[in-house]
Backbone:
């Protein structure tokens, strides 16, 4: 791939990343359908790892499939694009860098939710969001390998 195409692809990744961050801010702090309309009177937090995950699994019948999916898989899926886009837009990338930045962003989100009392601070969310960021990185690696393989085959045909 030419240097120009690489720059265009990276620029496209940066634009997508900024759009994603805007969506993330809206979804995590402002989305009415996800219960972000009011500010709680008290601080809500969970500092015990796997506490909320276990609760959602144990009470899945009472809570309903959507609530369980939205909490468990949703926390993973919402951060997968972060791992993908940060790898796509960056020249230096790696597993531990993505792990660190995914965990850092998730921690920042949880701290903002705690202090603004919109949502709650939950260590399980940090874990699930970090897993999502790493999953996005793995998806990036697969897509990048497929792209390189495609361009290598086309170069041989010429």
Residues:
């Amino acid at each position: 791939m030419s240097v120009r195409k690489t720059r265009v692809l990276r620029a496209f990744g940066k634009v997508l990343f900024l759009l994603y961050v805007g969506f993330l801010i809206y979804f995590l702090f402002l989305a009415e359908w996800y219960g972000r309309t009011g500010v709680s009177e008290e601080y809500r937090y969970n500092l015990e790892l796997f506490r909320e995950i276990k609760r959602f699994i144990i009470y899945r019948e009472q809570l309903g499939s959507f609530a369980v999916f939205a909490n468990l898989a949703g926390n993973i899926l919402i951060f997968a694009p972060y791992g993908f886009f940060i790898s796509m837009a960056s020249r230096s990338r790696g597993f531990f860098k993505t792990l660190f930045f995914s965990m850092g962003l998730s921690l920042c989100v949880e701290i903002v939710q705690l202090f603004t009392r919109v949502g709650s601070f939950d260590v399980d969310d940090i874990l699930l969001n970090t897993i999502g960021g790493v999953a996005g990185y793995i998806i990036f690696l697969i897509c990048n390998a497929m792209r390189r393989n495609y361009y290598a085959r086309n170069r041989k045909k010429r």
Q: What stands out?
A: The chain is about 75% helix and 5% strand.
